[in-house]
Amino acid sequence: MNGLVSFRLCKLSTPDLLENVDKLTDEMYQKGELPTRHIPARPNSDYDLLIGELIQRMMEHEKYFNYIEEQLTEIVDYHNITMASELRWKIGRYLAKPYGTPKPAKSDSA
Questions:
Q1: CA of 54: how far to CAs of 15, 23, 85, 103, in Å?
Q2: How far apart are CA 84 and CA 80, in angstroms?
Q3: How many other C-beta atoms are found inside a 10 Å radius of the C-beta of residue 81?
Q4: Higher-confidence residue: 92 or 31?
Q5: Residue 76: which residues within 8 A CB-CB, separation 6 or more?
Q6: Alpha carbon of residue 65 to chain centroid
């Protein structure tokens, strides 16, 4: 990964970051050209730095979600909590990687 990303100079919000990466990726394929690298680097607009920032944020989110999953598992196991299927599904949906889990059938709901 680009070493400049570790300085965390990108100030874009996550939605803006995603939008810019999507736009630049589309442009790259439409034009058939690789993105230009700038000196000095532009952390809020250089494609390689935006991709690096996106990867950094995804890794941070993954660590956070793993921590939450561990905490919830410990709480449920420690207290021996019995939950209705619908509640288990809602928690599972937030913890699922990457796209969620199917909703349980109505007969599974308590």
A1: 11, 14, 34, 30
A2: 13
A3: 11
A4: 31
A5: 83
A6: 10
